[in-house]
Design brief:
The protein is of the alpha/beta class. It contains seven helices and 21 strands. The strands form four sheets. The chain has a nine-stranded mixed β-sheet with strand order 1-2-4-3-5-6-7-9-8, sandwiched between helices. A five-stranded mixed β-sheet has the order 14-18-11-10-21, with no helix packed on it. A hairpin with a 2-residue loop joins strand 10 and strand 11. Pfam families: CBM_2, Peptidase_S9.
């Protein structure tokens, strides 16, 4: 078993995304998932926040634990936000979760959610004695005392060991989490009881060589029962089809849907259908989470992003790229210029690779995933981009015939112009 667990974090750029939506009192059980609006304002609503983007340390269970925080670019304490907690895989880290945009959900969310990525002990989620559930309790308490959260809009998602932990949270905190989406998970972090309903979206590969799909089905079926859904054997794609099939269960209790997505693939967090440019996971998961409603945007949005050197505010930008191709390989160098009036810190640049291109290595940034819709994240030495300043980074890739440049550039979620 130890050997199998060591494989839970393969060298696939993956992250566990845990998104939480429940009560300000984490053990109280006051958040009913059947309610579509915020049940109560958290203590941070109306308060000038002290928390900023970055790594934070908290005492939990008698020891120091850490988590990463990412705020919306237009955060204002007058608006309750969704809360998304992303969980990493074994031998992964909270930095990995941030680097891939919380499994792509950060970009999908726009400015509608606060994102949190806790760090597991021993780079995993053994949850011994419930210590990791307690950690999430303590993080949410600290965050919600300082920031404005919609208590009916907490969610959880993770890959592999992170998927196991998101399942454990659904079991242990059904009155806190509105919905969870374990990707390639199994019952590795424990389950106190799956007797209370939680909206559930399970995702698993039919050829998973690390955690067999039967393990994912077992997690799913526990919430099929808890949510009162009609039992069935949902269709799954044929091996070699290069596709995925998503099934919404019938008969579920109102407000507690169950979905199951099986894909033709192995133990990966962001599978891509054959001939597709990017993974379908973030789109389907965000649609599943966002169906439960959300807070009404403020009538008078803030005139500028919140202060702080690490705030990843949206920014105007210009991009130029140069491709040098040969046979089945190429290099691409990208230069991004901040044409906005504010300094951008902790930048990410998203772009779409042509079909058939796969990144093998890169410089001056980290890249996740290696193909399709890619996010380049700053290195530690080039994280700040002043107005008028430029940053250059690049990568080497293989290709199957299309050696064109990337398209669809966006700097921290804001579309860039070419030139």
């Amino acid at each position: 078993m130890a050997q199998r667990r060591a494989l839970l974090g393969p060298a696939v750029t993956a992250v566990a995304l845990l998104i939480a939506a429940g009560t300000a009192i984490l053990t109280g059980g006051t958040a009913s998932a059947e309610q579509g609006t915020a049940l109560a304002a958290t203590a941070g609503c109306g308060r000038t926040p002290a928390l900023r983007d970055g790594t934070h340390t908290i005492q939990s269970g008698g020891r120091a634990r850490t988590y990463q925080l990412r705020l919306p670019g237009n955060y204002t304490s007058s608006r309750p936000y969704r809360l998304v907690v992303g969980l990493h895989w074994l031998n992964g880290s909270s930095n990995d979760v941030v680097a891939n945009g919380f499994y792509g959900l950060q970009q999908r969310a726009g400015d509608s959610a606060i994102f949190i990525a806790p760090q597991g002990l021993d780079a995993g989620w053994a949850n011994t004695g419930g210590r990791d559930v307690t950690l999430v309790d303590d993080i949410l308490r600290a965050v919600e005392n300082d920031l404005c959260v919609d208590t009916s809009q907490r969610f959880a998602l993770g890959f592999s060991y992170g998927g196991a932990m998101s399942y454990a949270l659904a079991c242990a905190r059904p009155d806190v989490f509105r919905a969870v989406a374990p990707i390639a998970g199994a019952n590795l972090s424990g389950c106190s009881s799956a007797s209370q309903p939680v909206a559930y979206f399970g995702i698993h590969g039919i050829r998973d060589s690390v955690l067999n799909i039967s393990m994912g089905r077992s997690l799913r079926d526990s919430f099929v029962r808890a949510n009162g859904c009609t039992a069935q054997n949902p269709p799954e794609p044929a091996q070699g089809s290069g596709t995925h099939l998503t099934t919404a269960y019938a008969g579920c209790r109102a407000g507690y849907p169950v979905q199951w997505a099986a894909f033709d693939g192995d133990h990966v967090p962001l599978p891509v259908d054959r001939n597709a440019a990017s993974s379908w996971v973030s789109g389907e998961v965000w649609q599943f989470f966002s169906q439960f409603g959300g807070s009404t945007p403020p009538s008078s949005p803030p005139s500028s992003p919140p202060p702080g050197p690490s705030s990843p505010a949206a920014a105007a930008c210009r991009v130029a790229s140069t491709v040098n191709a040969w046979n089945n390989g190429l290099t691409t160098n990208i230069t991004v210029t901040n044409t906005g009036g504010s300094t951008v810190s902790n930048w990410t640049v998203a772009f779409i690779l042509p079909t058939g291109q796969t990144i093998t290595n890169g410089w001056n940034a980290t890249y996740t995933p290696a193909s399709g819709r890619v996010t380049a994240t700053n290195a530690g030495y080039n994280a700040t981009l002043a107005p008028g300043a430029s940053v250059s980074f690049g990568f080497q890739a293989t290709h199957t015939g299309d050696s064109g440049p990337p398209t669809g550039y966006a700097l921290n979620g804001s579309a860039c112009t070419a030139g």
